[in-house]
Design goal:
single chain, mainly beta, 15-stranded mixed beta sheet, five-stranded antiparallel beta sheet, 5 helices, 39% strand
Length: 435
């Protein structure tokens, strides 16, 4: 769910949950007769990703990464070692009620208790909330998905907030910082590591440092080769998985101090090496209309002979969020900078979009009379549509389902949800077959 375009009323207590239930009861989702319709190509031709931080450009991002590594304060860990070494252990199977149709053979796993129950509504310590989910997708000439060097794996993103339920806006701190989670799903109970997302800095004297990427909601993620693309509203960030840093002090401080590195009690950090935005200057993105779309979820489309990122817009309690395809350059593996096609979705509060090349799968509010769940926890729905045709509900889904990711290797659709329940937990990572 995109912040600040959304309000996280569903977090901490019965009053907030009741408010959400009343809000959803009042909302009347759009008729299923409305199509998942193509946006005017003349408008789409104006959609751009403007590069504002370049991995190889004059801004010195590569130099900043090298400067940090020269300090000796950080070690280097490759992805394979990380996936196969220790970490947190999750729970096998769907440990919470999901609403998923049994006919679609649902599967998945849960996070460990602390990650399942973390709450950004905590007025003291705050907490983490999951958002994005991706399989590892190869960027080679022989595309594959779902494994990294033969290891079944996934990536997820989380943002951190504190006291978001406080009526005093001065005390609410949303999107303070963010992390990327790399998951080994070889066994039914997954193992995983959290990596703090940081921006490298090269100081005037040539020394290196890093800081958190502030204001980062990490709405969506795509793990593509050695890179993790992360959506954050009008921004698309690129993180380099060839430079996973092992921090040598697990403290609150962030950055390098001599030969010591620390990052909010994380063992690992990963640097941002490029960034794009859909706007120019400091103007905000525009949801549902205009030529500066928002990036509120992210998935990969590798059909049609050219891989592309797919972004989707979140419009609270309304339809019209746009799904946009952004082609990737076959040589650089980075965005070409322009959109190739876009669709306007009739799904209310759309939280995720993915495609198998023929069908589109859209996570959002269930239409009236569908879904189920409880008044405090109504299920989300996964809708299925084809271009310029009306969507239909494929299945109800876990409360507040977020990003979706499609596996061409297994013909299964994956998803993640963000529901906050600090007592029992309600979060799962799930998959279903696609009929």
């Amino acid at each position: 769910m995109a912040y600040p375009w959304s309000t996280r009323l569903a977090a901490a207590g019965s009053t907030a949950a009741t408010a959400v239930a009343l809000m959803l009861a009042a909302a009347q989702p759009a008729s299923a007769a409305m199509p998942f319709g193509e946006v005017d190509p003349d408008t789409v031709a104006q959609f751009r990703l403007h590069q504002v931080v370049s991995q190889d450009g004059a801004d010195g991002t590569d130099a900043a990464v090298a400067a940090v590594e020269r300090t000796g304060a950080v070690g280097h860990v490759d992805v394979r070692t990380l996936l196969t070494t220790g970490g947190h252990t999750g729970i096998a199977g769907l440990c919470h009620d999901t609403g998923l149709s049994a006919s679609l053979k649902p599967g998945g796993y849960c996070w460990k208790k602390e990650d399942d129950r973390s709450s950004s509504w905590n007025p003291t310590d705050g907490g983490w909330t999951p958002q994005g989910l991706s399989l590892p997708y190869s960027d080679s000439g022989t595309p594959s998905d779902g494994t990294w060097q033969g290891i079944p794996a996934q990536a997820a993103t989380w943002h951190h907030g504190t006291d978001l339920g406080n009526p005093d806006p001065a005390k609410r701190r949303g999107d303070e910082y963010a992390r990327l989670t790399l998951v080994n799903t070889t066994n039914a109970a997954p193992t995983y590591h959290h990596l703090l997302l940081v921006q490298p800095v090269r100081n005037a004297d040539g020394t290196g440092d890093f800081r958190v990427v502030a204001g980062n909601h990490v709405d969506g993620v795509v793990w593509y080769g050695d890179r993790a693309f992360v959506a954050n509203g009008r921004y698309l960030q690129v993180y380099d998985l060839r430079h996973i840093w092992k921090l040598n002090r697990q403290g609150k401080e962030v950055g390098v101090d001599g030969t010591t590195s620390s990052g909010l009690w994380h063992n690992y950090a990963v640097p941002m090496v490029a960034m794009y935005q859909t706007t120019t200057g400091g103007t905000p993105c525009s949801v549902t209309s205009g030529t500066t779309p928002c990036l509120n979820s992210l998935s990969l489309d590798r059909t049609g002979g050219q891989d592309a990122l797919v972004s989707a817009e979140y419009k609270k309690d309304a339809a019209g969020g746009r799904v946009v395809r952004w082609p990737l350059d076959a040589t650089t593996k980075l965005p070409q900078g322009h959109a190739s096609v876009a669709y306007s979705s009739p799904v209310w509060s759309m939280q995720g979009a993915a495609t198998d090349g023929t069908n589109w799968y859209l996570a959002g509010t269930c239409p009236t009379g569908a879904g189920g769940g409880t008044p405090a926890d109504p299920y989300s729905c996964v809708h299925r549509a084809r271009a310029n045709a009306a969507p239909h509900v494929m299945t109800s889904a876990p409360v507040y389902t977020q990003n979706l990711a499609y596996s061409w290797s297994t013909d299964r659709l994956w998803g993640i949800n963000e529901r906050i329940n600090s007592t029992e937990g309600r979060r799962v990572v799930f998959s279903v077959s696609t009929p």
